[in-house]
Design goal:
Four Helix Bundle (Hemerythrin (Met), subunit A), 4 helices
């Protein structure tokens, strides 16, 4: 069983924590913008059917982006909790260290690449 925190140094974990907090703040700002744009689109008076269709499509698109951002925010919060618990950088399935390259690309990931691929294959 790996030691608490895996093979990452405290300094590295702190850098990941800072990156996660910055990304969390960016997502919060985007979500607020999406919500405001969505409200504005709903309040506008569409002049014809084409305008209504475009407005509806744009609103749906903004809300779907919002859903993706909310999922990412949930993953970021979970990663911050793992940092607080001392098990950041450890795969939540196999308990092995997550490779630094993967953490650099997706600091909120909870799975090593092997377990992620297995999960995706099982999901279909």
């Amino acid at each position: 069983m790996p030691s608490k925190g895996g093979s990452l140094a405290k300094k590295e974990i702190e850098e990941f924590r800072k990156r996660l907090l910055v990304r969390r703040s960016e997502i919060g700002q985007k979500l607020n913008e999406f919500r405001n744009e969505s409200k504005d689109l709903g309040n506008g008076v569409a002049q014809d059917l084409a305008d209504k269709a475009e407005s509806s499509y744009t609103k749906e698109f903004l809300l779907s982006l919002s859903d993706a951002e909310q999922r990412e925010l949930f993953q970021i919060d979970a990663a911050l909790k793992r940092i607080a618990k001392g098990d950041f950088g450890i795969c939540q399935t196999c308990q092995k260290d997550i490779h630094r390259k993967r953490l650099n690309a997706l600091p909120w990931t909870s799975l090593c690449i092997e377990c992620q691929e297995k999960a995706e294959t099982e999901a279909g």
